[in-house]
Design a protein that fits this description.
505 residues, alpha/beta, Alkaline Phosphatase, subunit A, 3 domains, eight-stranded mixed sheet, five-stranded mixed sheet
Length: 505
C-alpha cells in the first residue's frame, strides 16, 4: 500500500463545497466524489500540536498536558510504520514542528522536508525593517513594530520575499510532494504526509484567488484576525472572511495539482488518500474570531475527513455517519499498511467503516488543557467548565517540559513530583508539575477562555448552536458519557475535581 496523508491547518468544514459550503473548492469535491466522506468527524486535543500528538499516538492528551512535544513514552504512527518496513516522509511548512514545543514530531519520519516562511517563522533576517512602510501597508490591528511573541513583524518581513504564486510556502509544499511522487511513484510501501500550514491565519493569497471574492473594503492589508470577539465594522469583517475564502481556494487549487498528477500517472489503483485538518476556525460566528478563547463550537470542533481507498473505489461519493475523531487517524494509517495497532488507544481504525457504516464511538470528548471538557454523541454537544477558571488546580504530566517557544522556568518546577500511575507511560516516570497561571504559556492557550459557561445544545434542531437547551435527563446522560470517557483516558483526579465531578471508583 502507498498512502498520501494530506493535512491542512484550520480548515473550516463549512467552507467546503463537498460539505455544503459556498467557497470555491471544486477539487475538494472532486476528491470527495472518488472517496468516502465522513460527516461526523470531530477534534480531540487542541490546538495545533496537541492535535498532532493525538494523530501520532491515537490517544487524547488534553487531560494531562498543554501544548508540547511527543514524549518518550508516546508511540508514534510513523515510527511504527518505519519499524514495519514502510518508508515515511513528511513535507511541511508547519513551522511549529521546529519550535521547542513541537521539536520531536518530524524526527519520527524516515525523511522530512521543511518549507520556510509561514506566520511568524523566524526565517528572513532583516535587522532594521522598514517600519514606516509596514505601518502604512497594514491595518492597525495587524501591525506591530517589535519582534514579540506574536511575531507579526516577522511575518511582514517574510512576506516581502513572496512576490509570485510559486513563492508561497503552500505552493512549494505541493512542488515537493509532486517531486516525491516523480521519484518514488513506482516504489513499494510508503506513506507521505503533506502538512500545510494554510489556511491558518494570516490569510495571504495571490490576487487571482482574492479577486474571486469581491468586496468593498479599501483599507490596508487586513488578513490576520486577533483571537478575540468581533469588534470590526462590516467591511472589515467581510474583508477577513473573503481573505480566508481566497486562501481556502488556493489550497483547493494546490490539491488539484495533486489530483491531476494522480490521474496522469494512474496512482488511484494502489494509493490511498486521507485528507483532514486539526481543527476549524471561527469567522465571526457567535461574535468570535479564531479559536481557543471561545467555547469549541461546531465551527472549530466538527471537522472534515475524506478517505480514498483503492479497494473501495466503487464506493466513491458515499457518506458515513459514524462518529469519529482525530485519534482514529493513527490506527487507520497503521491498518492501511498492515501494521499492528498497539494496545491502549482511544482511536479506532476506520478501514472497516469504508466497507460499511458502523458505530466507531458512542461518544467522544474533546478540549483544550485548562478550558472546558466537551462531549458529543453526534446529536448533542455539552460543554462543561470549572466554576472558577482562575483557581482550578491543574498539573502537567511530562518528561519534555517545554512550552510553545520556551523551556519551563525554574518556578514551574516548584512542588514537582514523579508520577508513575498511568498505564500509557509504559513504565516511564513523568514529572507532575503545577500548571501555573503565570507560565509563559498558561492553561487556556491563546488567552484566558471566555464565554465560559456550562451549556448543552441539540444539534438536530439547532445545528448553529444558537439556543442552549435545559434538560436535566439529557445533561445527566452526557455527564455519564463524559466521565466514562475520561476514565478510559486515565484522567487524573484533578480533571474531575475542577469540573465538580466525583472521581470514579
Amino acid at each position: 500500500m502507498r498512502t498520501l496523508f494530506v493535512l491542512f491547518d484550520s480548515l473550516n468544514r463549512r467552507a467546503l463545497s463537498c460539505y455544503g459550503g459556498d467557497t470555491i473548492t471544486p477539487n475538494f469535491t472532486r476528491l470527495a466524489q472518488r472517496s468516502i466522506v465522513f460527516d461526523n468527524h470531530y477534534v480531540g486535543s487542541l490546538p495545533c500540536m496537541p492535535a498532532r500528538r493525538d494523530m501520532h499516538t491515537g490517544r487524547l492528551n488534553f487531560l494531562h498536558r498543554s501544548w508540547g512535544p511527543l514524549e518518550p513514552f508516546d508511540v508514534s504512527y510513523p515510527e511504527i510504520l518505519n519499524e514495519n518496513g514502510t518508508y515515511t516522509h513528511l513535507v511541511t511548512d508547519h513551522y511549529h514542528y521546529f519550535e521547542d514545543g513541537g521539536s520531536t514530531y518530524h524526527n519520527r519520519y524516515t525523511t522530512w522536508e521543511f518549507l520556510r516562511g509561514q506566520e511568524w517563522d523566524p526565517f528572513r533576517a532583516v535587522v532594521e525593517p522598514p517600519l514606516e512602510k509596514f505601518k502604512a501597508a497594514y491595518h492597525p490591528s495587524q501591525y506591530e513594530d517589535h519582534r514579540g511573541f506574536s511575531g507579526r513583524l516577522q511575518n511582514m518581513i517574510n512576506r516581502e520575499y513572496v512576490r509570485a504564486e510559486e513563492d508561497y510556502a503552500l505552493a512549494k509544499c505541493f512542488d515537493r510532494l509532486i517531486g516525491f511522487l516523480d521519484t518514488n511513484g513506482d516504489a513499494g510501501d510508503w506513506l507521505v504526509q503533506i502538512e500545510c500550514f494554510d489556511p491558518h491565519e494570516p490569510f495571504a493569497a495571490p490576487a487571482r484567488f482574492r479577486d474571486l471574492y469581491p468586496r468593498d473594503y479599501k483599507g490596508p492589508v487586513l488578513d490576520w484576525p486577533r483571537y478575540k470577539m468581533v469588534d470590526e465594522d462590516r467591511l472589515e469583517v467581510e474583508e477577513l472572511r473573503a481573505n480566508y475564502a481566497a486562501l481556502v481556494t488556493m489550497c483547493d487549487a494546490q490539491l488539484g495539482r495533486l489530483l491531476d498528477h494522480m490521474d496522469a500517472h494512474n496512482l488511484w489503483h494502489d494509493t490511498a488518500v486521507v485528507l483532514s485538518t486539526d481543527h476549524g476556525f471561527m469567522l465571526g460566528e457567535h461574535d468570535w474570531w479564531a479559536k481557543n478563547r471561545q467555547p469549541f463550537y461546531q465551527e472549530i470542533a466538527h471537522i472534515p475527513l475524506i478517505i480514498y481507498h483503492p479497494d473501495f473505489a466503487d464506493r466513491g461519493g458515499e457518506r458515513r455517519q459514524a462518529l469519529t475523531q482525530t485519534t482514529d487517524i493513527m490506527p487507520t494509517l497503521l491498518h492501511l499498511h498492515g501494521a499492528e495497532t498497539p494496545p491502549g488507544l482511544d482511536g479506532r481504525s476506520l478501514v472497516p467503516v469504508l466497507a460499511q457504516d458502523q458505530e466507531v464511538h458512542a461518544a467522544v470528548i474533546y478540549g483544550l488543557f485548562g478550558a472546558a471538557t466537551n462531549v458529543t454523541d453526534g446529536r448533542y454537544t455539552y460543554f462543561r467548565y470549572p466554576d472558577n477558571m482562575a483557581t482550578q488546580e491543574l498539573w502537567e504530566y511530562t518528561l519534555m517540559p517545554t512550552h510553545l517557544k520556551s523551556f519551563f522556568k525554574a518556578k514551574e518546577f516548584e512542588n514537582a513530583s514523579l508520577e508513575r500511575s498511568f498505564s500509557f507511560l509504559r513504565g516511564y516516570p513523568v514529572l507532575k508539575l503545577p500548571a501555573r497561571r503565570d507560565a509563559q504559556r498558561p492553561p487556556g492557550q491563546g488567552g484566558p477562555p471566555m464565554d465560559a459557561r456550562t451549556v448543552l445544545y441539540d444539534l438536530a434542531v439547532d445545528p448553529q448552536q444558537l439556543s442552549p437547551i435545559d434538560d436535566d435527563e439529557i445533561e445527566s446522560r452526557m455527564v455519564d458519557m463524559m466521565v466514562a470517557l475520561m476514565r478510559a483516558n486515565e484522567a487524573p483526579p484533578e480533571a474531575y475535581a475542577r469540573l465538580g465531578l466525583a472521581v470514579p471508583a
